[in-house]
Amino acid sequence: MLNRLNQAQPYALSLFRFVVGLLFALHGAATLFGVIGGTRAETGAWPGWYAALIQLVCGALVALGLGTRAAALLASGSMAYAYFKVHQPEAFLPIENGGEPSAMFCWAFLLLVFTGPGAVALDRFFGSRNTAATSEGAPRPDQTPAVPV
């Protein structure tokens, strides 16, 4: 049973990445464009409009698995900022200050920074040739191992 779960882990991680990225992008679209029940932020208004732009772009990139780690790091940082500057001054705990979504997104994206995109992602097809083998310390086939002088 555990072996099957372990084999499915990279695919479950991809599904997690997709869902979190999609929800984040939808939140940004709702704020930027006033769609799907959102209230439109005034263009250029700090910090709401810029936060929504980060949410839309980073959420879409994470959902697609393109530049996942960098997009997730920016998204995580923006949610940490949102929590500590907007929610935390109201009360200490997220349940008290309405900051649960910010805290959850922050930690979910930080997890993706460290785990990567999973097995199904555009990162696997474009740009980065940094595969699982290189992340484990093994040289890529097109590289010669570094020899100490």
Task: Summarize this entry quickly.
With 149 residues, the chain is mostly helical.
Describe the structure.
This protein is an all-alpha fold and 149 residues long. It is 62% helix and 0% strand. α1 packs across α5 and α2 packs antiparallel against α3. The radius of gyration is 18 Å and the shape is globular. The N and C termini lie far apart (48 Å). About 9% of the residues have low confidence.
List the helices and strands and how they pair.
Blueprint: H1 2-33, H2 48-64, H3 68-87, H4 94-97, H5 100-115, H6 132-135
Features:
single chain; 149 residues; mainly alpha; 6 helices
Q: What is the overall silhouette?
A: globular
Rg, alpha carbons: 18 Å
Unreliable residue stretches: 131-136, 138-145
The helix count comes to: 6
Distance between the termini: 48 Å
Number of strands: 0
Give the SSE order as H and E letters: HHHHHH
User: What share of the residues lie within helices?
Assistant: 55-70%
Q: From the helix content, strand content and strand pairing, which structural class follows?
A: mainly alpha
Strand content is: under 5%
User: What's the overall average pLDDT, rounded?
Assistant: 87
- Major sheet: size, sense and barrel closure? none
